[in-house]
């Protein structure tokens, strides 16, 4: 993508040029899809102190870094946006982290959800965490295990967002 992809302004320009959004909804969805498809889920040495620009440069970030990046992109595009922090059931990480790590985690995990006002409606989303391929793989594992949540996915998880309403891959409506 080149150096322009390492800045918020550069990503906004690239997404607008490539997606050619017809309206605000399409632009927001294209920004969501950019984070989902270009920023792999993963932990970084900066963890909670990583900036949106650092997440862009690394091309990787955990849920809170990804949420912060999408919020920065949406804000840079002129949308009213914020982060909403929720507590997730740690069982979401069953089979996603080693058992000793899961055992040491608190029962509820700190998690960021991106909220954006679009068409007069506030949408809450975290459906950008896994790219489509990774999401499908984890979803297949979840179904095969017969679990409601785990493998990094919440109950009713999705990785696509239409720009209408909420869309979650880790959070659940009851978490808000």
Explain what the structure shows.
This protein is of the alpha+beta class and 176 residues long. It has a single domain (3-175), classed as C8orf32 fold (Roll). The protein contains 6 helices and 5 strands; from the N terminus they run H-H-E-H-E-H-E-H-E-E-H. It has helices at residues 8-19, 24-38, 52-58, 63-76, 99-104, 132-145, and strands at 40-41, 60-61, 81-89, 108-118, 121-125. A 3-stranded antiparallel sheet has the order 3-4-5. Strand 4 (108-118) and strand 5 (121-125) form a beta hairpin. Helix 2 (24-38) packs antiparallel against helix 4 (63-76). It is globular. The N and C termini lie far apart (35 Å). The mean pLDDT is 91.
Topology:
Elements: H1 8-19, H2 24-38, E1 40-41, H3 52-58, E2 60-61, H4 63-76, E3 81-89, H5 99-104, E4 108-118, E5 121-125, H6 132-145
Parallel strand pairs: 1-2
Antiparallel strand pairs: 3-4, 4-5
Oligomerization category of the chains in this entry = single chain
Strand content: 15-25%
DSSP E strands, number: 5
Return Rg in Å.
16 Å
Order of helix and strand elements from N to C terminus? HHEHEHEHEEH
Overall mean pLDDT score? 91
User: What low-confidence regions span 5 or more consecutive residues with pLDDT below 50?
Assistant: none
Percentage of residues in helical conformation: 25-40%
Count the DSSP helices: 6
CATH topology: C8orf32 fold
What is the global morphology?
globular
**What's the end-to-end separation, in Å?**
35 Å
**Main β-sheet, in a few words?**
3 strands, antiparallel
Number of domains: 1
Widest beta sheet: strand line-up: 3-4-5
CATH architectural label: Roll
Structural class: alpha+beta
CATH class: Alpha Beta
């Amino acid at each position: 993508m080149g150096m322009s992809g390492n800045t918020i302004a550069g990503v906004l320009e690239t997404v607008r040029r490539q997606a050619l959004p017809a309206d605000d909804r399409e632009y927001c969805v294209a920004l969501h899809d950019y984070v989902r498809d270009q920023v792999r889920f993963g932990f970084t040495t900066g963890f909670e102190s990583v900036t949106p620009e650092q997440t862009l440069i690394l091309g990787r970030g955990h849920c809170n870094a990804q949420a912060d990046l999408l919020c920065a992109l949406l804000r840079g595009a002129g949308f009213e946006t914020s982060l909403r922090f929720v507590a997730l059931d740690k069982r979401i990480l069953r089979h996603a982290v080693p058992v000793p790590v899961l055992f040491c985690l608190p029962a509820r995990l700190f998690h960021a959800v991106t909220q954006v006002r679009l068409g007069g409606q506030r949408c809450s989303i975290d459906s950008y965490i896994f790219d489509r391929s990774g999401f499908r793989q984890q979803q297949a594992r979840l179904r095969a295990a017969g679990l409601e949540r785990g493998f990094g996915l919440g109950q009713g998880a999705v990785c696509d967002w239409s720009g209408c309403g909420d869309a979650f891959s880790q959070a659940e409506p009851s978490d808000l």
